[in-house]
Write a structure and sequence with these properties.
The chain is an alpha+beta fold and 498 residues long. 26% of the residues lie in helices and 20% in strands. It contains 12 helices and 18 strands. β12 and β13 form a beta hairpin. The longest helix is centred in the first third of the chain and has 17 residues. The protein starts with a helix and ends with a strand.
């Protein structure tokens, strides 16, 4: 259990902080000259080759040669056996391709129809279903969720006396609910019921979902909140969650290869990719079971998620209402707290306005991003714990080829510093129980390793360093000049272990 929690914390740090989707295409990067797609007389095959051979890192060092990389090489570098990509252009799926293997050491190739765990991209699909129920009058966006919950209710406490938990706050991660995410269950493990998960009762392997801050007061990502949503939707409709999702969203959009069934039915298992850890080893049993379906249980493929994104784009434009009305879609894409709408992360303005979500289950990482008005977007799914970084590089290649707004990597300048100062930074830094950042010096270079993943620390100043995945590390000294701790992405504080 400790190992699973540590790995989850590490994935949280990477995917939510340094690899968050809203930061993939940050305006802080350099301004890339955009070439209108219509002006490029490239065939589709040429476009695909440009993407496959044009992967870009999150950070480009000013003055260094072209950083373009080949997909096959980066898959090998990240020990990622399989990748599947779907690209949206002009409001349609322009192309979809699979690369590599469904399972390491086999000859089972990934195809565009291969199923992957969508992980947390399960959340926005579930969110849209809940908004459909709102439009049908079965749920309310702003009423106390306990009015509709039957089999389990949010426990009342000092934080809920004056402000109740609502669907709106739950979807936008500011309902005050606990539990960031879930580790799933191996094939050999007993799977808990939904009330057992919500109460943190065995055989559940997660903490109870509770309100520990005033609802509406702070933004905090909560997979636990979406597990409350799952119970709420089931109680409001008296239907099993997979059936409910199929009826409200999946079948309406044409996501015929997608299911929330957990465990995955035997008839679909031959289509499924196996998950792999950071060393490229297959997850025991190939993948975990996630009874937390709304939070992490969707099995799908990039083309189906692309259809989901396209439906949102069309609904926003008033051109489709297969699931939601235009008015409700506008609410979906309206910021509620921080950078979040009702289940999606939002960023950009004008033609750069976009919605996105990423996902990380054990052995799987994926990203979905789409632009509100331009009919562009992409979905990348991988069967690896390293896949988030790879997906990011693929998205930069797609963005460059298709002229996406605000789509360039960040350009940084390496500062000239005396390597002697690195000695003061060397040591072990306690980020969380069981999770240590190890900083080492090798000749005139500084490195950081966490959970076995080692990265160069490149100096931006004498105290601030960055990685090529655009993580930031700042070393902090006390009044005597001794290094006491570091800041990871200016958010997580790690104490130095003497």
């Amino acid at each position: 259990m400790k190992t699973r929690i540590s790995v989850f914390l590490f994935l949280f740090i990477l995917t939510v902080l340094s690899l968050s989707v809203a930061d993939i295409f940050s305006p802080a990067g350099f301004a890339q000259k955009r070439v209108p797609v219509s002006a490029r007389n490239n065939s589709l095959d040429e476009r695909i080759r440009h993407v496959e051979n044009g992967l870009l890192p999150a950070v480009i060092i000013k003055g260094e040669p072209d950083a373009a990389m080949k997909l096959a090489d980066r898959m090998q570098f990240y020990k990622t056996p399989g990748v599947s990509v779907a690209v949206i252009n002009n409001g349609k799926i322009e192309w979809a391709r699979g690369y590599g293997m469904k399972k390491a050491g086999t000859d089972e190739k990934v195809t565009p129809e291969t199923l992957f765990q969508a992980a947390s991209i399960s959340k926005p699909v579930a969110a849209v279903a809940s908004l459909r129920l709102v439009e049908e009058g079965k749920l309310s966006l702003d009423a106390d969720v306990n009015q509709k919950l039957v089999r389990w209710k949010v426990p009342e406490n000092e934080f809920t006396k004056t402000k109740k938990v609502t669907l709106r706050e739950t979807l936008s991660h500011n309902a005050g609910l606990t539990v960031h995410g879930f580790g799933g269950y191996a094939a050999s493990e007993q799977v808990p019921t939904l009330p057992q998960i919500l109460n943190g009762e065995k055989p559940a392997n997660s903490a109870p979902v509770r309100v520990d801050v005033a609802p509406g007061s702070v933004w905090r990502y909560s997979g636990g909140g979406f597990t409350v949503l799952q119970q709420l939707m089931q109680d409001a409709t008296a239907k099993p969650f997979p059936e409910l999702m199929r009826e409200t969203v999946l079948s309406r959009i044409g996501m015929r290869h997608s299911t929330y069934e957990q465990p995955l039915p035997g008839s679909l298992q031959p289509q499924a990719a196996a998950g792999h850890d950071r060393d490229g080893k297959t997850i025991v049993g190939d993948y975990h079971v996630y009874p937390e379906m709304a939070a992490a249980g969707l099995w799908t493929m990039p083309s189906d998620l692309a259809l989901f994104a396209i439906e949102i784009q069309k609904s926003l434009a008033g051109k489709s209402n297969k699931v939601l009305s235009q008015k409700m879609t506008e609410q979906l894409l309206t910021v509620q707290k921080g950078e979040w709408g009702l289940g999606l992360r939002l960023s950009g303005t004008g033609n750069a306005a976009r919605f996105a979500h990423n996902g990380a289950n054990d052995g799987f990482q994926c990203v979905m991003i789409a632009y509100n008005r331009t009919g562009q977007g992409a979905v990348v799914m991988t069967n690896s714990d390293n896949g988030g970084q790879l997906a990011r590089e693929i998205l930069f290649a797609v963005a460059k080829e298709y002229g996406w707004a605000d789509s360039a990597p960040v350009v940084k300048i390496i500062a000239k510093v005396d390597a002697k100062i690195y000695d003061a930074y060397v040591g072990q830094y306690d980020l969380a129980p069981g999770l240590v950042i190890s900083v080492t010096r090798e000749n005139n270079k500084l490195f950081a390793a966490i959970a076995g993943q080692k990265s160069d620390l490149l100096p931006e100043s004498e105290t601030v360093f960055f990685t090529l995945s655009n993580s930031m590390v700042e070393f902090v000294r006390d009044e005597s000049g001794e290094v006491t701790h570091l800041l990871l992405n200016k958010t997580n504080r790690a104490r130095k272990i003497k």
